[in-house]
């Protein structure tokens, strides 16, 4: 996608961030999983995070809402250091959608309602039905045990569950990997609508080049825990042979080549 990067203040900033596994002090100094990572996500921007398996993409997302803590450098969200945020407020502000889409025990409705209830808000059946329809899921699913959903259905419910709480920053980890192209596009439209109308800012981990082109303003390519590219989608040379990731072929329109 070729849209100008919105010129607004930072939603997320990484300044020379280092993260080691095992954590510093556990066993020696650990191996740097992220090594001097710096970037800014502007408000109302979608930044695609790409790179091979093990590059550190999921780790990067988890540092934003403090599921993990950096060993060096600084992570700021909304202009504030993550360690200065109360964690529950941080996690509402920066909502994460896990790739595995873990469901809470209970029905689909229970899953959609739970985060809202934590935030002191109610959810009506009619509202919940509209959420499902927005991603082309049958509202009859509301009463179904969430554990019985397919992985593609779970991914959509997990995304809705997070979007319903109206985060300012959305952290998306391969959320369409189990979806066919049509369903992936419906999910993309829903997120992009929030970007355009509410200034939602998105870090979107994807293996799917065509998807990154459709949704992102810029690309951040991580490899071996370092930033290999940060810039406009159009200036990025996609690897000719992406090394991993489900969905990248399934979601590429017929006739579109693998690299540049
Ligand atoms: N819980 C963990 N314990 C030890 N190493 C881990 C753990 N989680 C991830 N790693 C390692 O950290 C690196 C980055 O992982 P990750 O952020 O999940 O990469 P990506 O999402 O790009 O595939 C990999 O080398 C991975 O093996
Ligand atoms: Mg990952």
From TrEMBL:
It comes from Caldinitratiruptor microaerophilus. Keywords: ATP-binding, Nucleotide-binding, Transport. Gene3D superfamilies: P-loop containing nucleotide triphosphate hydrolases. One of its GO terms (molecular function) is ATP hydrolysis activity. This is ABC transporter ATP-binding protein YjkB. Pfam families: ABC_tran (PF00005). Residues 241-260 are annotated as: Disordered. It comes from the Bacteria. Residues 12-249 form the ABC transporter domain.
